[in-house]
Design goal:
Two copies of one chain form a homodimer.
Chain A lengths: L13 H19 L2 H7 L14 H14 L10 H18 L14 H17 L3 H27 L5 H17 L1 H13 L3 H22 L1
The first copy, chain A, binds a DNA duplex (19 and 19 nucleotides) through loops.
DNA sequence: ACCTGAACACCGTTCAAGT
DNA sequence: ACCTGAACACCGTTCAAGT
């Protein structure tokens, strides 16, 4: 209301809206994210946003393409395997940073950064010598793994018990698991000793897939 | 309002609420799904639902566990590879039927059907001779692939253009792709000839992963 | 050209009341 | 014991007005 709000009253712009939108979603997830809340963060009335973005859906699509632009593109300087490996590792890191984007990366109406990245991946495979059909398969299995792993990692990150009640419920569940679900009990017992590093876990599956593709390429 | 509403006025029960909820979500997706809309479908006032479920979140969790219960459990009668393969193929089919569940399967506080299935998968791997650590990796790569593929298939399913404007926009994009993104242009050109079957596409990547796991098992 | 205020048609959910 | 009605605190968005 008063001119002494904490947000500096610079002119609004699409870039500034997008930046604030991503910061808000990064911080609070998709549930906290909304037009009214975003306007508040920018020190502006909700309707001011609609001069810079058509609606919420268009805004989210633009945010998604910014996320895509942060993913490394397989450079033609590297061999196909290193290029794809770096791109996949980068994608996981980016999706960790912007975990609200995880369910939305595969949206209809892909943006330019999305197209650029996917074109480069497909190019990398074709130039390596994969047939068109095999390149399609290889492309599909990689992206499914990347997005699926990011999803798993996200919910694992939410496992941190929020309050004492949650923790107690979880403990009770673990005890029941001991009786009915011996193999889950083994996980609960051993994984807390070993620890669990998502980055190396991701790399293990990624290398399994890339090994498989490499064998296919050598066999032809 | 009048006693002649189309829904038969049988007594409400948690089972009846869940059944109607899944039917509604299957039909209209998560966006159409809501407490008020669900109540309307059951011919009841919104608040009547709250005697049978605590809130929307608890309701969705219960729905998710029903989805889990529809996924085949790897039977101990089969060899490990066939068991896991059948379970994965079944998971994809179930997620196709209930595509609203795709982002939510890996939720915190898993239900009993979830625990049962995951325990059986882990047991299948351990009994096949995989070490604990390798079994964890194998488990992770499979589920990441299954959920990631389901996500991709879901958005591919939404690609069907809704109106003429959409179709025109998509065509324009394809033309631009020809110039800037030759490898995407190749996909657009060739994939419409070949056709694309999600089930065989899914099996290709699944077999690549299972082959890799099989080689690991034989090497030890 | 850019921002605002009031309003509309929605949510999930609480609370006090009906039968 | 089960269902209802009115209300509360939210949404995204439209429309007419301000500067």
């Amino acid at each position: 209301m008063s001119p002494t709000t904490d947000a500096p009253r610079r002119r609004l712009s699409k870039a500034r809206v997008l930046e604030a939108a991503i910061a808000l979603a990064d911080h609070g997830g998709l549930e906290e994210f909304g037009m009214r809340r975003l306007a508040q963060e920018l020190g502006v009335v909700p309707m001011a946003l609609y001069k810079h973005v058509a609606n919420k859906e268009e805004l989210v699509n633009a945010m998604i393409d910014i996320v895509f632009s942060e993913i490394e593109i397989p450079s033609s300087g590297l061999d196909w395997r290193s290029g794809l490996r770096r791109r996949a590792m980068s994608a996981r890191e980016v999706l960790k940073r912007h975990s609200w984007a995880i369910g939305l990366m595969e949206t209809a109406s892909p943006g330019p950064a999305n197209l650029r990245n996917h074109n480069a991946v497909m190019g990398c495979l074709r130039e390596a010598g994969f047939s068109f059909q095999t390149a399609i398969h290889a492309y599909s299995v990689q992206d499914a793994y990347i997005y699926g792993f990011a999803m798993q990692e996200k919910t694992l990150g939410l496992q941190a018990p929020r309050d004492a009640g949650d923790a107690a419920r979880r403990r009770a569940q673990t005890i029941r698991a001991h009786e009915e679900f011996p193999y889950l009990a083994e996980i609960a017992a051993k994984l807390s000793e070993t620890g669990y590093d998502p980055a190396t876990e991701f790399a293990w599956g990624l290398d399994l897939i890339l090994d498989g593709l490499d064998q296919l390429l050598r066999a032809t």
